[in-house]
Amino acid sequence: MCQVTGAVPGFGHNISHSHRRTKRRFDPNIQKKTYFVPSLGRKVTLTLSVKGIKLIDARGIEAVVADLQKRGVKL
């Protein structure tokens, strides 16, 4: 699960040529990433989806960490 966006696996079907359906799982691209957060004065390791990484690049690590702390996520 992504700590920033909350992305979790989705579920659906594989559909064969004969149109038989079997269950499958769509996993988000989850990665561990370490950032230095100046306001905390230390490094923070987050479990992120690629969309979460892009969000941090756009908004900045300080703003994202502030939102996480507001939600009560332990860092």
TrEMBL record:
GO CC entries = ribonucleoprotein complex; ribosome
GO MF annotation: an example: structural constituent of ribosome
Q: Which InterPro entries match?
A: Ribosomal_bL28, Ribosomal_bL28/bL31-like_sf, Ribosomal_bL28_bact-type, Ribosomal_bL28_sf
| Pfam families documented for this protein | Ribosomal_L28
Coiled-coil positions: none
GO annotation terms (biological process): translation
Q: What keywords are assigned to this protein?
A: Ribonucleoprotein, Ribosomal protein
Disordered: where is this region? Answer: 1-22
Give the matching HAMAP family. Ribosomal_bL28
UniProt cross-references to PANTHER family, sorted A to Z: 39S RIBOSOMAL PROTEIN L28, MITOCHONDRIAL, LARGE RIBOSOMAL SUBUNIT PROTEIN BL28M
State the family it belongs to.
Answer: Belongs to the bacterial ribosomal protein bL28 family.
Under which name does UniProt file this protein? Large ribosomal subunit protein bL28
Q: Which organism is it from?
A: Mycetocola reblochoni REB411
